[in-house]
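EI: anyone free to look at a 348-residue chain?
SC: sure, send it
EI:
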Amino acid sequence: MSSNKLFTLLVPVISVVMGLLAGAIIMLVSGFNPIEGYTALWNGAFGDSYTVGETIRRSTPYILTGLSIAFAFRTGLFNIGAEGQVIVGWLAAVWVGVAIDAPMYIHLPLAVIAAGIAGGLWAFIPGILKAKLGVHEVIVTIMMNYIALFTTNEIIRKVLTSGQTTTESISPSASLASEWMQSMTFYSRVHYGIFIALFAAVIMWFIIQRTTVGYELKSVGFNQHASNYAGMNVSKNIVLSMVIAGAFSGLAGAMEGLGTYGNISVMASFSNLGFDGIAVALLGANTALGVVFAAFLFGALKEGAGEMPTGAGIPTELVDIIIALIIFFVASSYMIRWVILRFKKEGK
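SC: here you go
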């Protein structure tokens, strides 16, 4: 195995292990038992079929936001706007779910597609500004997050309701709820969206690895000037990359609006699904399969955190510290690579 492949395989694993070890040290210093803490975390995420269902449910949107960030990364762009794209996708899905009366085979796909289109259109704006005017996508997408949040809140109050803070529930024909999945997990909120998320991961892998479009997108990400010299349309590929990334985030919003909650409420702050997606993408090494595994890890950490106060008396904020430490070690991957290569040389 080459050093690059070894690095790609081991760095995420080592980052997680080091993050968990650092979390254990913090627990010890704070006067808590790390074994009890991690046992409670495990039980909260995988202790019974209900918690397993909830872990899968929580991981579903993380897969999609992770794919969104990873897809943009692979094409040389930093999509900080995944959070805003989640919000507008959530709004579009619920809007279609509430306003339209149609059979499920029409209504549900229409609501899901509407979410993807909404997220894609929202990402089109920073994409076209980057492609035509050279405006950095990070600045634009950060601002677009706030525009999405406040605009959505106003639409909920003034258009979808009469001054209320929560819309009515979507029609059953637009719901992703699965009776057989819920009955298998003691009526958790797990839903069919997990299959959509996994299919989206396959789509990303196929686009990036098996299509001419994916080759051009990666080429533009590596070197825009060389790609332009080779006859590729750089502007078109920048916009296309942002639109596809936005569509993934929009679908993440549909998972919440059509699956977990069945409505949308006025938001006092961000959902953080898009921001957590950055960490998921980094931990997953910006690959489709890596994102899926990283999303399940984050889902388990987030879900298991609820058991830590009652099971071990440890505050849930500690899980956020562990996640932050994992991200830190991923960001410091060059240090881990240096250690791996050093040990490899000494072993020869």
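EI: Residues 60-270 form one domain.
SC: 👍
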